[in-house]
Amino acid sequence: MTDGAGGTAPHGTAPPGQTPGARRRMPHARRREQLLRVALEEFGARGYHLTQMEHVAAAAEVSKALLYQHFASKEELFGEVTESIVAELTGRLNAAVLAEHGSAEGIRAMIRVLFDYATEEPAAWALLVRHIDKPEVGLELRELRDRLGAAFAALLLRRRRADPKLSRAALEVNERRARLLVPLMYGSMLSMVSWWLEHPDTPRERAEQMAGEFIWLGLDRLRTGERLPKLDG
């Protein structure tokens, strides 16, 4: 290291004007990005309620005061983390489904995206499945749940709306039925992906196939009017 006079500063000493032992400040945007990445890992591992700001600060190797300079509260930090998850996952789902033309193909595409996302972003997936049905900890996840529901409903109704034989009344019945089926669909898909992550000996192709068949064949039987027999009495 060269000193101000053109010589070499002794090893371990700071350059002129810098306090010995001080670290260079990370640019604001990069620091914020780092804190969000660390917070995602902490929220994914502990969940919202058990994660404290000091956990995030310690994992990021910064002071809690510095963390509060970027995020005024845990709620704000969690909100930004979940907002990024919603944007990423819904973007992937929309692109995949729009590329398909049939309901069955659309469901396969959604399943594939969820498996990809869980594999590539395990911390985000852990946060998602832990909190998606607990919207009190973040409006963003409720938005994701609603978007998933709308996407599933659209897939369910795509073929039926194209049938010229169906009356308006029949379409309204189908739409009400679709809204009831939506939580069963996304719940089963999230559970299936999470189960597969815990059982890596199961081939992914087989897990995807089973998820698709469970949803599609069950829906097909409902569409044809089949119902579970009522109990006597």
TrEMBL record:
Biased composition (Low complexity): 10-21
Region forming the signal peptide: none
Gene Ontology BP terms: negative regulation of DNA-templated transcription
Database matches in InterPro entries: Homeodomain-like_sf, HTH-type_TetR-like_transc_reg, HTH_TetR, Tet_transcr_reg_TetR-rel_C_sf
SUPFAM superfamilies associated with the record: Homeodomain-like, Tetracyclin repressor-like, C-terminal domain
Region called Disordered, residue ranges: 1-28
DNA-binding region: 52-71
Superkingdom of origin organism: Bacteria
Keywords: DNA-binding, Transcription, Transcription regulation
GO MF annotations, alphabetized: DNA-binding transcription factor activity; transcription cis-regulatory region binding
Domain HTH tetR-type: 29-89
Keyword Transcription regulation: yes
One Pfam family hit: TetR_N
Name listed for the protein in its UniProt record: TetR/AcrR family transcriptional regulator
Organism of provenance: Actinomadura syzygii
